[in-house]
Amino acid sequence: MAKPIRVLVVDDSPLIRQLLTSMLSEENTGIEVVGTAADPFIARDKIKQLRPDVITLDVEMPRMTGLQFLKNLMRLYPMPVVMVSSLTEQGAPETLDALELGAVDYIAKPQIKNEAAFKRFAKHLVEKITIASTAKVRILETEKVQQRRSQVETVQSYHRWIAIGASTGGTEAIKEVLMTVPKHCPPIVITQHIPAVFSRSFAMRLNHSLELEVCEAENGLEVLPGRVIIAEGDHHLEFIKQQGKTVCQLSASEPVNRHRPSVGVMFDSLRTVITPSKLVVVLLTGMGNDGASALARLKQEGASTLVQDEASSVVWGMPGAAVAQGAVDEVVPLSEVARRMLSLAAVKQ
């Protein structure tokens, strides 16, 4: 039998520590809670003593915030961390900060209203911890990314659009890719698996930190050169023609591949508004297989397809699924994604 995943639960609330421990200790989870800690100082000692595989970490804690602890942890003892925090618009920047510091994933603190909600939360928590236990902990090195920017060739005109899909580890991968993209760029549309309360903060953060115009998708927003559009959380990003323009259309239809927004939905919708041969389609790090089949359809119809390699992915689920389907023209490290996708976008079709 495989060894259980050893987890340390870090939270200042006794109730939350008890609840998480109970959920993770159920039979057949493959997880063992080896300890709990009420604050980062206790957690520091227990990490040295217990050597857990994964930590669940709260953001707001006494004596030291979860973010400061995470920053110290990633500098001294990098390991997979799943943030268990309040998924609110006010808390979104802190959770995005945690991902930037190296946390693998996040989940909302439980507000259990009934047994079904309890089971749903428990299932998602186990899934995220299981994935985190196999993830590659990766911290964005801004200086190196900025050095690579000079290696990206700026061309006078682009002839193709770029579509990007991502999931676990994707917020930082997307940021790294876009940091090297020039202000004069082809239209870029992105679906990242992200909750509704986070997508606006994510888009605003990128818009403020990059030279690019980065927008959260909204109905009627036009797809334009120099504009990056990010799917709104809890809505599929689709496209329609309207008075000769291509504009966004948000949909609250059922999740696809368990996700809304779904990468596959966005990829398939692009086929209705632009000839696939005028697309460069990219899959970055992510859990599951969302987007892989749609990527294959686009490749068959003439799109250029590119995925992040396993070594640089936090989780090689979505890119790996696309490779397994024979849907990929190129597999490249994250550091090369921007250069290759822009080079392909400059090719006339």
From TrEMBL:
Gene3D superfamilies: 3.40.50.2300, Methylesterase CheB, C-terminal domain. Keywords: Chemotaxis, Cytoplasm, Hydrolase, Phosphoprotein. Its main location: cytoplasm. The modification 4-aspartylphosphate is found at residue 58. GO terms for biological process: chemotaxis. It catalyses: [protein]-L-glutamate 5-O-methyl ester + H2O = L-glutamyl-[protein] + methanol + H(+); L-glutaminyl-[protein] + H2O = L-glutamyl-[protein] + NH4(+). This is Protein-glutamate methylesterase/protein-glutamine glutaminase. The gene is cheB.
